[in-house]
Design brief:
The chain contains 26 helices and 26 strands. Strands 14-26-25-24-15-22-23 form a 7-stranded mixed β-sheet, sandwiched between helices. A 6-stranded antiparallel β-sheet has the order 6-5-7-13-8-11, with no helix packed on it. Strands 16-21-20-19-18-17 form a 6-stranded antiparallel β-sheet, with helices on both faces. The protein is α+β, with helices and mostly antiparallel strands and 744 residues long.
Length: 744
Amino acid sequence: MKKKIDNTSKFHVKIGGMSCSFCVETIKKAYRKQAGVKSVNVSISHEEALIIYDSSVVTRGEIEKTLIDLGFSVRDPRKVKAFEEQEKELHLAKKYLTVAAILTFVSLLFMILMWSGIRLWWFRWLMLVLALVTMFGPGWHIKKKAWQSLKRGILNQHNLLEFVAFSGLTGGFIGFFIPNFSSADFFAVSIFVTSYHILSEWSSMLVRTRASKAVQKLIDLQPKNAIVIQNGREVIKDIDELKTGDIVRVKPGEIIPVDGIVIDGSSAVDESIITGESLPVEKKKEDEVVGGSINQSGSIDIEVNKIGEETFLQRVIKNVEESRALKPGILIIVDKVLKYYIPVVLIFSAGAFIFWTVISYLLYGLFDINRAVFAALSVLVMGYPCALGMAMPLALIKGGGKAAENGILMRSGEAFQIFPKVRVIVLDKTGTITKGKPEVVEVVSYNYNKKTVLSLIASAEMLSEHPLARAIVNYVEKHKISYKKPEGFESFSGRGVKAGANNDDIIAGKLSFLKEEGIEIDEQQFSRMEELSKKGNSVIGVGVAKKLIGIIGLADTIKEDALNTIKEIKMNNIEPVMITGDNKNTAKSIAKQVGIERLYAGVLPEEKAEKIRELQRDGTKVAMVGDGVNDAPALMQADVGIAIGTGADITIESSDIIIPGYQMRKIMISRGIAKESYAKTKQNLVIAFLFNGIGVPAATTGLVNPVWAMVAMIASISTILLNSFGIHILPHGRYRLTSKQKKF
């Protein structure tokens, strides 16, 4: 039997020019109508799409062309969108808005003159020119979007805008031939509605650009080049130019740029961003290293063994894409409303026209074309969904501002709508619950007092670049214990050090190193070291004159606000779950300290996303909090992803909420803000429907002038604006910080 060829391909793309929920629906509908497309997932919060298609039916180029035809721009999704590119788009949008605003202001002056009784014959000609310039100048890009959507059978806000604008234009032309029609009023509608749409586009883009700028400040990008050894010389090369077999030199403090094998040198490497392990890993000849980890203490030469999609970071990116595709779909509340809204408005408009012409003629013998056109236009203008479309963004902008005041960046609708419904919060251990760096937690002394033990080990370790050595010296200095520069110093990478101080030979390091150097360790001392190890501590012994004089236990300690934050999570009927790549002993110790019952230990990056999926299978809403590259797939998979700390670029781009710094308490502060903002969104929708629900049926009577319908629409938006930012139109709940949160 002939094996069936699988032609399934994926197209993951970053999209520029998305402004609201309609854009998401437009893209989805366009691809659903395109032959060969199997599924499409679009995220307005991340401005991305993942399209799965049959490459034997449709090409990648055709898939991309559909987006471009719809009026969107496409970018490489594997890089954070350059802020400079967004600034260019914002600058262009501002130019459109400036021109439209000037034209609108001029037309408004003439409308005021006409409303005051001054009507000259050339006013309507001037209004015609202003309408044409507005619609086909700054408004031209909207028409292109509307046409591309319409020819695919898609109804969206661009279509409705153009129906209104061209209806106004048509009404104005009719006025040249029918005396009862006020041409200027109709032309004014075309100008006002186009300008208002341009304003809403610019506002949305401004919010997104500023949010992106805040994200840019948090990003710690991977190095763009590497030091390559060629013929014994150091040559700087672009990362993309590296090949398998190249030798790359990484100096202390630098980020390891590639996956490879150490061929020369030794060092302690911080792999926490990848594995979640907070303590550094000793790397020597023939050990593997992973791009993105940090070389801390020694210079190492690495032979590149993986490039392109084989590298760890590229595999993580692939897992992120997969998680996005498998993420439970969330229909934003406004989408639910707007899905049926536009067809209903068009039906009302057409119905009003038919009633005052055909039905009116059949029933009363009256064919009232003037009233029919007025009614149809007024319904379109009154029904233009600016108020509905702005109901959620305005509430979210207010909530986003409040979040920013608390040092939180909330960058998606999911962050506001879904977070209050979350029933499980999954917390990465390293950098989220813990500080992410080793500290001295235990000091045991034998025959010497603790101060003397600490003074001697600080003298021995002061010249070492190892993170554990630095943690010991910092601890000694913090407690103001004096120590001296060693008389001699010798480091044994990954094992320990030997030094001289106060005429004593000091040996400090791992248990195996101490034994090799002839340090006597009795059964009780050995048991104590084992006990500390089982708690998840890194244990360093100190020996003088062949005797063990002390034991230092170091560990990644929990954050000051971790315990209270976990308590508050539980008080809100949310289950905290810990997930980590660390070993089970360390995980159990940390979980016990903060009161977490359920935990997953030794979990690989791709497994973290699977664990989130398991928790979501019964419909439970899940939030994930993390800070490393290894957390990115899980952050994307979660209903709400929260990046905490400095974060890597892919971690931030995978998240709905970003908490710079390391304060856990802000997790629940952001939830409270989300809860209040979502309540405000629902209030705004009620207000919008009060206007539209009354206005649209009233407009069908033909007694509402299109210009006054436009005024009513602006009034509804103004009311929503006041409810969102100032006067509280409807009763509402208000989120306040708890006394526990205030005291931090």
